């Protein structure tokens, strides 16, 4: 298995130590878990962005929204009264 040496300053190292302790993990397990979580989150965000782009570049969807008369723009200005 490959290894990666990462340097942390004293404050970062203490924060890692404390967070690992709070989660009942070793520092190594905490850093590994945090890293794999960040990778999974990054992949999910990329996939969501790609899906967003696919959906909102669909001309049929744009035509359907226009035909339905939907307007998602800002609401008109209201005086200081509650709606």
**DSSP helical segment count:** 3
- Indicate the proportion of strand residues: under 5%
Query: What is the H/E string?
Result: HHH
- The secondary-structure class comes to mainly alpha
Mean pLDDT value:
87
The major sheet is characterized as: none
Distance between the amino and carboxyl termini = 61 Å
Radius of gyration equals 24 Å
Total count of strands: 0
Secondary-structure map with pairings?
Layout: H1 10-23, H2 27-56, H3 59-68
Helix pairs in contact: 1-2
Task: Give an overview in words.
With 83 residues, the chain is mainly alpha-helical. The chain is built from 3 helices and no strands. Helix 1 (10-23) packs across helix 2.
Attribute tags:
single chain, 83 residues, mainly alpha, 3 helices
Short description:
This protein has 83 residues and is an all-alpha fold. It is built from three helices and no strands.
